[in-house]
Inositol oxygenase (Cladophialophora chaetospira), 319 residues
Amino acid sequence: MSVIVQQASHPPSFRTDRDGLAFEALCDEIEHADIAADQALKKKEQDDKDEASRFDAEKDKTQFRDYENACDRVKNFYSEQHTKQTVAYNLKARHAFHSKTRAEMSIWEAMERLNTLIDESDPDTELGQIEHLLQSAEAMRRDGRPRWMQLTGLIHDLGKLLFFFDAEGQWDVVGDTFAVGCAFDDRIIYGNKSFASNPDFNDPVYSTENGIYTPGCGLDKVMISWGHDEYLYHVVKDQSTLPDEALAMIRYHSFYPWHQQGAYRHFMNEKDHEMLEAVKKFNPYDLYSKSDERPSVEELKPYYMELIDEFFPSKVIKW
Ligand SMILES: [Fe+2]
Ligand SMILES: [Fe+2]
């Protein structure tokens, strides 16, 4: 049963009228739902076997990202997202981010807050957000991935807090991302026809291959649809000492048309090719660690608190 979040202890900037359970359910469906193109991903992973992470080798990947059999909720979600993610909306969202007084809390508090906001609406939730973050980080730690990458796994979805700040709905928080300001690529989930109701779809500039960009301009200059990836990237880039690879993993982890489908290659510069490799290394830990054993939050906390301190010089972060 879905219960509306009501807790007096939230700071005033938090929206308490948002249904955390519905949000969590949609996140789950999106991430477990699939596209035919996932077949290509599996083949590619097979080809890159030694590069691919070791831990996920035995997982049944057919159960993840199954969009073809996705329910109406996922289809409706993408229909709304593809209609509303316009250049105008994206400029507005970035402006709001830079011009508002933002909530302040530590990374660990943010993890607990995200977990609480979602869990408190559903006492039966099996795995909370905090567990997904810890599972991703722990899988990287087991594989001997560097400390900065483990931390990236730990924080990569904290941008979902956006849903409880000033997002307009779920469509500007979760789901696959894509470039705006240029033609909607056919490799985006459900194809470019899915954008037919988007005001930018027939725009004389935004509907062209390059749109407002120039070939080779670099993805730093490309506006990626606003959501939890882009938001967290903006939060972390000025407040941590995480390397560029980590920032790319955060910014592009839902950018499936790019990192799995090969879209937007014409905008890439040299640095982006290196970043693409990093994001591909990250992706399996996000997707396939979800069936791993339930982590013990209290046991793992000291290790990760130290890791957070290593890369976030100030304990309190502006969200
Ligand atoms: Fe995510
Ligand atoms: Fe994730």
Remarks:
- The chain has twelve helices and two strands.
- The two ends are 30 Å apart (CA to CA).
